[in-house]
């Protein structure tokens, strides 16, 4: 039944007037609107960047941004869903969501999104939208113009060089490393996406055939692909922090543990995060990034617009502004946020290239070529099953 | 007038709560058309009990809730007995005010830093013990929930003490103490045998409030409780906000289970009460003078001092963090200082402060108006409060918030009412009104009836008596009730989150969101303001009457 609704909604949206309008109409309609941008609020630098975006869009387009700080993106999904349930198909309370992965899949499947809209954004010209490009696929789910990219995410580890001589070189190496340094590492609870990503990173390296991970998981395939992972984890767990009986709630709490000296390894979904954390006084100066030899999982962070957004035009203007080369350069500036740009360098004009070339450097900031190959996210069903299987095995 | 208040309460309070419970209950048994669930059945329950670790979670919830409440009660009574001679109502309120003012979440964050293996206590011991790294011990988030019990006690002992001290004014305390002592009973024995049995019926409902809260706290469970699995309320919040909307059904079943758990705990409390009453009667009849019990008061005194120290350290830690830049292990004080937590958070902090203040003033105003209307109605009807009315006032505090807030929000959406400032104010008023009522009832009844009689004999009508005699004379207790109302409003988390559709950012929602991030410095700034607002209200409650009544000796202080 859900699919039928989704199809009906999608069909009605295809004919929505927005596609026929030209961008100037959108700008005119957006003037004076306040966009409620629902985004995870646990990172002060991202919060400050969102504040900056709001000030700029206010000055340039008369569109102000109100950051609705979420502790978990699913809060916004639930809110849109309960609005749909109550029949509020216009004037919804969520205008823009920072989203990806399972949350995007859930909203797309249930017909909770406006779009496709990405191709309508003037600044989408700077994106590589050719089939299979990173900005067109989200956890193997085709984006189909229903969400617009704004920052790159790569899974990386950080370690304290003052305490650790050589970090583990591969995921398999974590077992002997933890044996030699008991209680000095942990991972966030797998019900949190960072904890789940740690398990996925190990799964890609350890699975007998990593190719099956790109397809939806079934029972037999899941059991076969994850058997080596559980052997690895059973060997690792006793030497984790607190003997593997307790886990930090999310990566920020884990970073705090590293800052407090309780552990020596932290993990992030942003290669610039450790450098930014050092500047923010949240990590020791001696923290540095490392990735396993075979590379690490990477994906793109998107913004999406709910189907019932009250300020849709304003949301489109903000989504477009996020893709402007100067916005992306500002975002990649380590003094500001440090998140890598989603734009295709080949499509930038001279001014855009110059803006990126002028960005400051930082000793804790890895170069993109040091990060090795980008591993593609497994299909979203693997994450759900991994989280469930982990809970069934280790929550008593 | 009483009829009007009852009508307001029936439509504003009972109706919505019942509707909210109804939606939650239907979802708990598989009926939620919104997500395509149209078949009634027990599947949600099967899914709930199929969750890994649910049984452990239930056990830890029951254990921490019951143990923290019983320990809080014992310690609060013992401290009241030990300190009562030196604490008048006003002084006690002043001493306890910071503990009542600090929101649960802020206290939990501070306490976590004090207790953690890398925290303040461990840092103080590190040079002595020669630790170069924090010990790998489960001091916070321990599997038995001891840190959680401690955190709950730090908040609940002061609350129960304040309630007990207020209730003592209704007992002929001085005479009973003197009689007991002259018959040769020890201090502790007089309290246990004479005073506590009279006090208990007066504080039973507040104790039940404490018990219900301890069994359903989200913020404290999240910050101080075990994590794998967490306490039931945290588990349910995770389910309610999971990306997979089908989980709303087991989450609703879990909310019902949470309600059942509270009911069972109330039954247990009643059983303990019966058993103690029986055993106590025999103990009293045996007539022992119980002089050996007095050292227990000394122990309570010491424990109370330790608790105040621990709570004070937690608040101090937050304040220091808000001015820190780097504060690494094993420094007992920050390595570098900065004002950035205060200045950097600028506009957001100011906006959240403004919203919080506005909501607090509005809810407190509504709650005060309702409470005065109710009490005045009782006066005019010349009837004492019925037991059902008392229970009605307490209803929102006795039900687990999560059990009806989700349904309430869904119901509001269906009515087409936008979530926003107004709904948040209304939802908070549900929880502020009971506390205002509790605080104001006793002083109101203690008002010298000769004053109103004299006014009436001089020809003043009922309204004039209310506005020119009762309210001015009761100014001090009314302001105290208002201060408690402000404190309760500032601390509300779930009602603000659910009913504000996330758009209403108060100091508390921001502090909890930020504590999901890791910056203790910014959290410290928010928590300090969270604490400062109610403290300012308490200060106003002391200063305004002192100023206005500076030449009215009988109206000074004591009335609170």
Structural topology:
The complex is a heterodimer of chains A (396) and B (560).
Chain A: H1 2-14, H2 23-30, E1 34-40, H3 44-61, E2 64-70, H4 74-85, E3 96-99, H5 102-109, E4 137-138, E5 141-142, E6 147-154, E7 156-160, H6 174-180, H7 193-206, H8 219-236, H9 251-259, E8 265-268, H10 273-279, E9 287-290, E10 296-304, H11 312-322, H12 325-332, H13 350-357, E11 374-376, H14 380-394
Parallel strand pairs in A: 1-2, 1-3, 10-11
Antiparallel strand pairs in A: 3-10, 4-5, 6-10, 7-8, 7-9
Chain B: H1 2-28, H2 43-49, H3 54-83, H4 89-101, H5 104-115, H6 120-129, H7 146-168, H8 173-182, H9 187-216, H10 219-224, H11 232-240, H12 248-286, H13 294-322, H14 340-344, H15 346-381, H16 387-398, H17 401-414, H18 421-445, H19 449-457, H20 462-473, H21 475-491, H22 494-499, H23 507-516, H24 520-548
Strand-and-helix sequence of chain B, N→C?
Answer: HHHHHHHHHHHHHHHHHHHHHHHH
Q: Return the average pLDDT of chain B rounded to an integer.
A: 85
In quaternary terms, these chains amount to heterodimer
Runs of chain B with pLDDT <50, length 5+? none
* Overall tally of structural domains of chain B: 2
Please state the CA-atom Rg of chain A, rounded to the nearest Å.
Answer: 21 Å
Q: Please state the second-level CATH architecture of the largest domain in chain B.
A: Orthogonal Bundle
Integer count of domains of chain A: 2
CATH class group of the largest domain in chain A: Alpha Beta
Terminal Cα separation of chain B, in Å?
Answer: 26 Å
**Intertermini distance of chain A:** 36 Å
Any guess at the CATH architecture of the largest domain in chain A? 3-Layer(aba) Sandwich
Helical content of chain B stands at over 70%
Instruction: Provide a count of the helices of chain A.
Output: 14
- Stretches of chain A where pLDDT is under 50 for at least 5 consecutive residues are 1-20
CATH class of the largest domain in chain B: Mainly Alpha
Describe the main β-sheet of chain B briefly.
none
